[in-house]
Amino acid sequence: MARNRFPALRTSRFRVSCAAKLETVNKVCEIVRKQLALPPETDLTPESKFSSLGADSLDTVEIVMGLEEEFGISVEEESSQNITTVQEAADLIEKLVQKKEA
Amino acid sequence: MNPLLRSAMIPMNTLCFQRNFAACSRALVPVQLPSRSETHLWYVVPDEVKSASLLGQYSKILSPCEKEYISCVRGERLKKTALLARVLVRTTIARYQTNGQVDPSSLKFRKNIHGKPEIGIDLEEKDRKIKNNIVSFARRYFTAHEVEMLSSIPDPETQRQHFIKLWTLKEAYVKALGKGFSALPFSTFTIRSRNSSRNCQSRDLSDSSSSDAEIVVESVDGSSSLMNSWQFTLLELAGTHFAAICVESDGSIGGRVFTPRKVTARKTIPFVEDEFHPGTDAVVLGGL
């Protein structure tokens, strides 16, 4: 009955474990903080845009390289334009890790 | 006081304030457009702009869209550089208008996805630290030739500086093409030095003062048509930054005589002062 009242639950997205995404987001935040040398009081959320945090293109590429090494994935250069926020990076990582493990 | 009268006074005060501001500081000094073989480089040093009231005046010449963008930027330092960058663009363009004084706030910019800028520029701090291992980074993103060049530099500091120069040159190139890193991966083209006697061997990297050296781009797949189409200038700016400029060349393909592009750099604090120190603020580096 709950599924009828909440149609979104029928979609497969909700089957993805939320805990895994949080862990990925946290790791991405850690790498971003380190690369941009952010002061500890800087608020970093999944929606945080790298450019608003002062990242230039070299920073973004360094972040992507750090993520590749951390998660054992390979991010095509073409995809790097889609990594503008912490959440976008985490989503791409999840996608590539799942593809790798498939 | 009658509220209607009071609100009518506000625009008058603003106008008076603007006139006072213009009277007590310099107006934008108009400049002649550079010739085809020349490039003018204008820059601001944020740390030299300290006055809060000046920054307030700068905000007034931005568009609502630009102000909106800056409000999303985190931190005072970054907000300031975002503001100064946009003010620099508006005031610099306004200087070159030949048909009378142009109000920099009246300029409207449009993004054109089809237009190619034909000039690209990138700047990096000379002291910028690279978090990843430089050769690993180059293996991942640059070409084999560039990896070889970087690996052959024994001193880590010289290697780091060479990396920064290479990065700015590659960025300037993809920007000139109107593409950017994701549309034109850095592993698809090599940037290197070539001396005017067309000796294609690697140059001695300590000999960067040679004015015979030319910086060229070549496609990794071997097509040589790129090389004579683009002209690069590498500069050391204000003693703190490397700057790379890439311009579409108007020379003919093959048999072209290399003539270095003339770049004049001017430091400015818009509406306050302009400085032009040829040969000291901006030093052209002969090769890579």
TrEMBL record, chain A:
<keyword id="KW-0596">Phosphopantetheine</keyword>
<dbReference type="InterPro" id="IPR009081">
    <property type="entry name" value="PP-bd_ACP"/>
</dbReference>
<keyword id="KW-0276">Fatty acid metabolism</keyword>
<dbReference type="InterPro" id="IPR006162">
    <property type="entry name" value="Ppantetheine_attach_site"/>
</dbReference>
<dbReference type="InterPro" id="IPR044813">
    <property type="entry name" value="ACP_chloroplastic"/>
</dbReference>
<dbReference type="Pfam" id="PF00550">
    <property type="entry name" value="PP-binding"/>
</dbReference>
<dbReference type="GO" id="GO:0009507">
    <property type="term" value="C:chloroplast"/>
</dbReference>
<dbReference type="GO" id="GO:0031177">
    <property type="term" value="F:phosphopantetheine binding"/>
</dbReference>
<keyword id="KW-0443">Lipid metabolism</keyword>
<feature type="domain" description="Carrier">
    <location>
        <begin position="22"/>
        <end position="97"/>
    </location>
</feature>
<keyword id="KW-0275">Fatty acid biosynthesis</keyword>
<keyword id="KW-0934">Plastid</keyword>
<keyword id="KW-0444">Lipid biosynthesis</keyword>
<keyword id="KW-0809">Transit peptide</keyword>
<keyword id="KW-0150">Chloroplast</keyword>
<comment type="function">
    <text>Carrier of the growing fatty acid chain in fatty acid biosynthesis.</text>
</comment>
<dbReference type="InterPro" id="IPR036736">
    <property type="entry name" value="ACP-like_sf"/>
</dbReference>
<protein>
    <recommendedName>
        <fullName>Acyl carrier protein</fullName>
    </recommendedName>
</protein>
<dbReference type="InterPro" id="IPR020806">
    <property type="entry name" value="PKS_PP-bd"/>
</dbReference>
<comment type="similarity">
    <text>Belongs to the acyl carrier protein (ACP) family.</text>
</comment>
<dbReference type="GO" id="GO:0000036">
    <property type="term" value="F:acyl carrier activity"/>
</dbReference>
<keyword id="KW-0597">Phosphoprotein</keyword>
From TrEMBL, chain B:
<keyword id="KW-0808">Transferase</keyword>
<dbReference type="Pfam" id="PF01648">
    <property type="entry name" value="ACPS"/>
</dbReference>
<dbReference type="GO" id="GO:0019878">
    <property type="term" value="P:lysine biosynthetic process via aminoadipic acid"/>
</dbReference>
<feature type="domain" description="4'-phosphopantetheinyl transferase">
    <location>
        <begin position="119"/>
        <end position="210"/>
    </location>
</feature>
<dbReference type="GO" id="GO:0008897">
    <property type="term" value="F:holo-[acyl-carrier-protein] synthase activity"/>
</dbReference>
<dbReference type="GO" id="GO:0005829">
    <property type="term" value="C:cytosol"/>
</dbReference>
<dbReference type="GO" id="GO:0000287">
    <property type="term" value="F:magnesium ion binding"/>
</dbReference>
<dbReference type="InterPro" id="IPR008278">
    <property type="entry name" value="4-PPantetheinyl_Trfase_dom"/>
</dbReference>
<dbReference type="InterPro" id="IPR037143">
    <property type="entry name" value="4-PPantetheinyl_Trfase_dom_sf"/>
</dbReference>
<dbReference type="InterPro" id="IPR050559">
    <property type="entry name" value="P-Pant_transferase_sf"/>
</dbReference>
<protein>
    <recommendedName>
        <fullName>holo-[acyl-carrier-protein] synthase</fullName>
        <ecNumber>2.7.8.7</ecNumber>
    </recommendedName>
</protein>
